[in-house]
Amino acid sequence: MFIETKQLTKKFGGLVAVNGVDFSIEKGKINAIIGPNGAGKSTFFNLVSGSYQPSSGQVFYKGKNITKLPPNKIAELGVARTFQTTNLFEQATVLDNVLVGHRLRTNSSLLDAVLRTKRFKREERRCMEKAMEVLDFVGLTHVSDKLAGNITQEEKKRVAFALALATDPEVVFLDEPAAGINPGETEGLAELMEKMVGRGITVCLIEHKMKMIMKLADKIMVLNYGEKIAEGTSDEIRNNQAVIDAYLGG
Ligand code: ADP
Ligand code: MG
């Protein structure tokens, strides 16, 4: 088992946002979570990545119980994520956005930086190489010197991918990566996700764009009012009556 949740539950006061969810994320595949607004999809991501502590239940990563680990420790294990809205430093270049995001995770101390030690310079070079590499991977080399405030919505989505990829993750959680972009751009992002899987990275995404999901996802979980109402392949989900009633019907 790669990533597994057992009876994962999150309550906010009287509201049960995620309710006893058992789900297994398949390694090397594109896993998707769908469901109406407020179904608990983002909360589920927050629980798996450690941003929220569950009210009950567990999360296992490669057999290890990571339920109580803080987000930075989970990230170090190879779990990366993007957020529903990407906050970039709009007055900084695309490259600097990726560099800053990456440098926060290096081993240099502030003293190393001030003294510009060999170690600092070595790490700085490594950070630059990594940033250039991930920007190339996501197809943004040509805008790396532009201010992040001046790039398109679709390019911002790609920067979010680059930030996640800079950590050399084993799995990337993408929260509505294709929200607010046009069908052609959505197709491009879908190709990028397939490219990630081609590199051995596991993808788990939340998405409302059904056409994209049905084509792209190997495994889909459907949440409704915090509960898993179905899981399976695109064909199984498309023909599931509970899913049609709760989500696809309208
Ligand atoms: P989705 O991503 O499926 O649209 P969310 O996971 O964001 O849904 O939210 C699920 C439910 O939990 C919603 O009713 C939302 O209002 C509630 N919720 C999410 N985060 C919090 C929070 N930090 N505090 C209180 N309620 C929250
Ligand atoms: Mg959400």
UniProtKB/TrEMBL annotation:
The keyword Transport applies. It comes from Halobacillus mangrovi. InterPro entries: AAA+_ATPase, ABC_AA/LPS_Transport, ABC_transporter-like_ATP-bd, BCA_ABC_TP_C, P-loop_NTPase. Keywords: ATP-binding, Nucleotide-binding, Transport. GO terms for cellular component: plasma membrane. PANTHER family: AMINO ACID ABC TRANSPORTER ATP-BINDING PROTEIN, CONSERVED COMPONENT OF ABC TRANSPORTER FOR NATURAL AMINO ACIDS-RELATED. SUPFAM superfamilies: P-loop containing nucleoside triphosphate hydrolases (SSF52540). Residues 3-250 form the ABC transporter domain. It comes from the Bacteria. The gene is livG. GO terms for biological process: D-alanine transmembrane transport; L-alanine transport; L-isoleucine import across plasma membrane; L-valine import across plasma membrane. This is High-affinity branched-chain amino acid ABC transporter ATP-binding protein LivG. GO terms for molecular function: ATP binding; ATP hydrolysis activity; L-isoleucine transmembrane transporter activity; L-phenylalanine transmembrane transporter activity; L-valine transmembrane transporter activity.
